[in-house]
Design a protein that fits this description.
This protein is of the alpha/beta class. It is built from 19 helices and 12 strands. Helix 8 runs parallel beside helix 10.
């Protein structure tokens, strides 16, 4: 698979100075951690889950989480597990199931994916069924450790389609049995399986226990470093602990109690000294238009230059201008990728993950072998200072992102990437 692999080759060549590289589920862990991109969540109870996975893969989704935890009712866990086993068999066979069973209440009310409604931005979701291609990286979000070993045994040979598990409400105490179960499942099936812990517990949020909780998580994840692909943030649970919910006009960083936790998590777990992990951005909850209270957060000029004023209007109508701002703030605060609950969020995340030609030029200059001794140089764009030693870690991360998301041509910006990604 590759990012922007769903658009025609000629269109991709016109957009990219360096095209995104191909990767597979067997690629190195550091490549996959960056390549996760927009990770689309879906309830594991969806009756045509295999079709959903194929459809979203053909529209640019490269990672999905099939959820047995908060997205389904407590009474539906057993049915969700059985459905996962059926749907993995269908994915492995490459054909639609004859009878996936009746939909559950949770599947009916789930937003991912929704019913067809039109031909605007929602074409990322609502177009005609797409042809089967490479499947995305697939993870299962479990509730309890024993589900890991049980599901791996029940999946049988179709476990080859599984990349790993998402571990909820992760702390040192609660996380250890999950990671031990993952190691046991790996030995049983003979395949590499990754963990993605979700940090969302009250102990992490509360100031008096935060430092101790983070230190314990850091120690445990360091012990299982080869199995931890990325660390995810459960911002909805953080807000819940204080009875809060951000509006579509506010980012996670506008909620100060949440922003402080994000900063501390990156401080401890996102360091650029080879002890850190990829930390992914929090979920954006909104996908339907509502009454606006504040001015739009998208400047008009980039869209005028690209003759894409209609696209700007559509983004604003779908409350996605707030999402775009949050994605930018994610990266500024050391996060990469994002949890997504609706397919319309995927292309914006990926478009803003592409490395600009200017970033690429700066990163290359900083990492030239002859610059090993340090020093300061003017950027090739003559608009900033590049200080070799302080900017080296940034440059290395930028080139890793460039490998999987590509480098835009000099005259190509976010608007062109987003337009092409939506058009497919």
């Amino acid at each position: 698979m590759r990012h922007f692999g769903h658009i025609p080759a000629a269109a991709r060549a016109a957009l990219f100075h360096r095209e995104p590289a191909v990767f597979t589920a067997d690629s190195p862990a550091d490549t996959l951690a960056v390549a996760l991109g927009a990770t689309l969540y879906s309830p594991a109870t969806r009756p045509r889950l295999a079709d959903d996975v194929r459809k979203q893969a053909a529209r640019g989704v490269t990672s999905m989480v099939l959820c047995l935890e908060d997205s389904i009712d407590d009474a539906e866990v057993e049915a969700g597990e059985a459905n996962l086993v059926r749907q993995f068999a269908d994915l492995a066979a490459g054909s639609a199931p004859e009878d996936a069973g009746a939909g559950t209440a949770a599947a009916t009310r789930a937003a991912v994916p929704a019913a067809a409604e039109g031909e605007t931005l929602d074409e990322t979701l609502h177009g005609a069924p797409a042809a089967t291609g490479d499947l995305p990286l697939l993870f299962v979000r479990v509730r309890e450790p024993q589900q890991i070993t049980d599901l791996v045994a029940r999946l049988g040979e179709t476990v080859r389609l599984l990349s790993g598990f998402v571990l909820p409400k992760f702390t040192e105490t609660r996380g250890r049995p999950f990671l031990e179960a993952l190691a046991e499942a790996e030995r049983a099936c003979g395949r590499r399986l990754f963990a993605m812990p979700v940090l969302e517990s009250p102990e992490l949020l509360h100031l008096e226990t935060r430092a101790e909780t983070l230190a314990g998580i850091a120690a445990l994840t360091a012990k299982y470093r080869e199995r931890v692909l990325a660390v995810r943030l459960g911002v909805t649970d953080f807000c819940s602990a204080y009875g809060l919910r951000r509006s579509p006009f506010m980012t996670a960083y506008d909620v100060q109690i949440v922003a402080s936790v994000i900063g501390d998590v990156v401080n401890v777990l996102g360091r650029a000294d080879d002890t850190g992990f990829t930390v992914t951005g929090p979920v954006w909850e909104y996908f339907r238009p509502g009454e606006r209270m504040f001015k739009p957060q998208l400047r008009r000029s980039p869209f005028l230059e690209g003759r894409a004023e209609d696209l700007r209007t559509t983004l604003i109508e779908h409350d996605l201008d707030g999402l775009l701002r949050e994605i930018e703030l994610d990266r500024a605060n050391g996060l990469l990728g994002k949890t997504c609950i609706h397919p319309t969020h995927v292309v914006p995340v990926h478009a803003l993950s592409v490395v600009s030609h200017e970033e690429f030029s700066d990163a290359q200059d900083i990492l030239r072998p002859e610059r090993g001794g340090g020093g300061v140089l003017r950027s090739a764009y003559t608009n900033k200072m590049n200080e070799v030693k302080p900017h080296r870690a940034w440059a290395e991360r930028t080139l890793r992102r460039a490998e999987v998301f590509g480098v835009a041509r000099e005259d190509v910006g976010f608007v062109e990437l987003l337009t092409a990604g939506l058009a497919g």
